[in-house]
């Protein structure tokens, strides 16, 4: 029986080591490569279907509504009132491809790396234009509910490392597309308030900006490393503490 007919395996979007065809790698798959080489390889090369995480539908809704609101100010070429909180002199960046860039599932902002023949993609939440510097600022919206509010040092905890990788990768994609990108970037957290005495089908959010200085200097090397791994004929070793590695061993994946 071929691997594509085995239960628990995919039949599409599989990389054949040494192939000449362009292969698409999303931002989330790039992050998966950084987290665990073995699971990334089993997924992209061997076609192993790992369990999906439950969809964060409420978070996604907040993202979508936030995009709609910022898009309204984008069309008007006016600053969003929240910009006053960080004294940001700018407006949501108006570009003909903004809707494509925000479409993570089908398009996103894309860059074809001719050195690796990989098509790298990422769906952004937003990009703003700093009117003082004329540089673009990458922004990402997050929904959460922390009883004591979003701490100023939230990005310093290990759990949020992926957030920083996310903005680094987006900034890298824009730079590769010859946009003038600022090192300044922001997370805009919408924190669900616990202060209400009753629900009445309304949830209040407290917005808070978290500044992040993006760094794209390390990504080219990792893209090259990722390509080398894809072209390898050897499955990487187990990653200690990786729950998906534990899963692949538990179901006795064989090739």
Description:
This protein is an alpha/beta fold and 255 residues long. The chain has 2 domains: 3-52 and 233-250, no CATH class; 57-110 and 124-218, no CATH class. Helix content is 30%, strand content 20%. It contains 7 helices and 8 strands; from the N terminus they run βαααβαββββαββαα. The protein has helices spanning 27-35, 37-44, 57-76, 98-101, 161-176, 219-230, 243-250, and strands at 23-26, 90-92, 109-113, 118-122, 126-130, 136-144, 181-192, 205-213. The mean pLDDT is 92.
Q: pLDDT average, as an integer?
A: 92
Count every helix, treating DSSP H or I runs of 4 or more residues as helices: 7
Pattern of helices and strands: EHHHEHEEEEHEEHH
Q: What percent strand?
A: 15-25%
Helix content: 25-40%
How would you concisely characterize the structure shown here?
The chain has seven helices and eight strands.
Keywords:
255 residues, five-stranded mixed sheet, 2 domains, 7 helices, three-stranded mixed sheet, globular, alpha/beta, single chain
Helices and strands in order, then pairings?
Elements (H helix, E strand, L loop, with lengths): L22 E4 H9 L1 H8 L12 H20 L13 E3 L5 H4 L7 E5 L4 E5 L3 E5 L5 E9 L16 H16 L4 E12 L12 E9 L5 H12 L12 H8 L5
Parallel strand pairs: 1-4, 6-7
Antiparallel strand pairs: 2-5, 3-4, 5-6, 7-8
